[in-house]
Amino acid sequence: MLLLGAVSTFSLVVPFGSVEAQTQIPAVTVDAPVERARPAAVASSRRAATRTSRANRRSSAQPAAPTQSASSNGATGERANGPVRGFVATRSGTATKTDTPLIETPQSVSVVTTDQVRNQGAVSIGEALRYTAGVSGDVNGGSDTRFGALQIRGFDTTMSGLYVDGLRIPSSNYVHFNGLDPYGAERLEVLKGPSSAMYGGSGTGGILNYVTKLPTAQQFGEVSISGGSFNRYQGQFDMGGAANKEGTVLWRLTGVVRDGQTQVDFTKDNRVFIAPAVTFKPNEDTTITLLANYQRDRAGWGLQFLPASGTVWPNNGRTIPVSFFAGVPSFNAFNTEIATAGYQLSHNFTDNITFRQNLRYAYQHNEEKTFYGTGYTDEAAGQLGRFGSYSNSYINSFAVDNQLQGKFNTGILSHTTLVGLDYRNTTFRDTAFAVTTSAPEINVFNPVYSYDWALGGMYDNKGIKQSQVGLYAQDQIKLGRLSFQLGGRQDFVTTQLDTNLPPTDTSTSKDASAFTGRAAVMYNFDNGIAPYFSYSESFLPQLATSPSGQMLDPETGVQYEVGVKYQPLGWNALFTFAAFDLTRDNVAVYVPATTFYEQIGQVKSRGIELEGSMSLADGWNLRAAYAYIDAMVTQDPVNVGKAPVTVPLNRASLWSDYTLQNGMLAGLQFGGGVRYVGATWGDDANTFKVGSATVLDALLAYTRDNWRLSLNVTNLADTRYVAACYGLSGCMYAEGRKAIGKLTYRW
């Protein structure tokens, strides 16, 4: 849960001789390989000193192990985009685009590491975020094969919040990239609050940065097979190393193959994912990494849009089963193909000046075959109306970000200055047809399924093109332990909409521009306490249309945040508390009944966040989070003073696991977690509430030599509860009990 502005993290380096360290994959690095020794007569001491100096330089795109500073825990050799041992990251580049310790970052950032994903058994991005303060990645429940409804600080950021290696991957009404497999990520980082000063068009609530696994300098490999609930079977592998003996070419290959279903009847969840990466180091100053991934999902439609009567409360004593399928079995698909390709380039001109260029092309195609509920036609009898649709959606996005970073002093002030120019071009196309069946209704308590269907008329045929150019600058200024961060950005955006629905064929365009800024101040005390204050703005041109077919106005946002971070000396740890006041204007809200977005005016979100993580040397991991969010509609034609749907006032979680280090049972790991989600309003008018819920998760694992056998059970008690409602006929169940056993071999 990750909705407010506090992050607390706590970790300790695992000794090399511990059970965990013995099975740890070698640290990933894309640094320049060490040059072979030259004869003293050839290599002068001056050139050797220059190489050493340059090897110690750090860039945010391809940084090497950072040097230890008084306020950072660098004993792990952690880099901003590199692997982390345990649950705790101490550095990040998401907030600043520079390799900066989190204790010196005056904004809330939460990092989910691969070890946390593994220990908690998360198999989607949404599940990986369950123990993060102020964030929810599965608002629509565990059967959302669309992977929509990413919520940060009370705001839905599905269409604007996903970034891959710092480049935005836009989404639309139907096409979401949030389904990317988490096994391909080195870490998942959530930057909370407006961030347009660095990223241009981005959501008010924050962004999620999917940091891709990079090639390795050491040979390693991992292969896993798993199986469990919902007839789920999966194989996955991750391997890499140096491709030549000089170490100037590095590689990595990651993949997943899955055959499975979901808790909803007739709904598949099959996947193929492959991600190759190659790093070239032509010299000590230049690094280029080529990255790509391809993902093919063959899934069913998981969102049933059930009525509140029978889910939130009983319907004459009856409850709709969690496995209920509202559709037509022969017409049920949510098939998706995702492909991205790009590179990360870093070049050091001098010891203090670095140029970086990140480029990525992203493509997604979605084919949707669905019938879903539209509300009761006869509530007493349990007769549910249905709507059928067939659609094809395509999205293509090209993005490039150019950065020039310099480090210098002006008198008593030290500066890390970044200037950048980025460009993004996105095209989206959607066509949709109504579909009918001989049985337009179905009984939710005694379903009898029809298998016939007929394609009807087209009701959507639109194309959207959007281009954005942004020029930005940032200065991180230090005066002893006092630091300032100043940033600003100017964006220029053009959006064009083409609609072709006979007998009309229309084309409209909208230009927008905005300047957004960010300012912050922070003080790092000797004892590890670091209070800060920050101000930030957001600007988000919409890639969506209203039910009337009009293009939406850009959203804007402003946030004030005050917080305290604490990193105890001698501990590789970080604790954070934050309080924020966030205002979002021209709010775009998805309306499931129309499958479009509508702008409702203004929403304010105020709250606090607490978060803590640790990984102790004796094998103990802990992660705790709490978020209090008071969100309210402050400008709207109808619902002023009401709370937005799906946003709980309170959300809390606690996870702990322990690995025995000695004795006959050394390597045995056991743990579990508890997640609490408070009550939410079920409709915009706040006429009914969706009840709160508490669920338990569990882990049992054993590691011996290079083998690891594990069992993860989520929702251990099989608690039945509704994840969210968007109205009386738009409710989604949360996922019930799921058990997955996995066998892993590492070398």
From TrEMBL:
Main location: membrane
Key words, A-Z: Cell outer membrane, Ion transport, Iron, Iron transport, Membrane, Receptor, Signal, TonB box, Transmembrane, Transmembrane beta strand, Transport
Stretches for region Disordered: 37-87
Protein name: Iron complex outermembrane receptor protein
Family, per entry: Belongs to the TonB-dependent receptor family.
Organism: Bradyrhizobium ottawaense
Record localization: Cell outer membrane
Low complexity: bias regions: 39-72
Limits of the TonB-dependent receptor-like beta-barrel domain: 282-716
Pfam families: Plug (PF07715), TonB_dep_Rec_b-barrel (PF00593)
Database matches in PANTHER family: FERRICHROME IRON RECEPTOR-RELATED, FERRICHROME OUTER MEMBRANE TRANSPORTER_PHAGE RECEPTOR
Superkingdom per UniProt: Bacteria
Mode of membrane association: Multi-pass membrane protein
Annotated ranges, domain TonB-dependent receptor plug: 102-207
Database matches in CDD domains: ligand_gated_channel
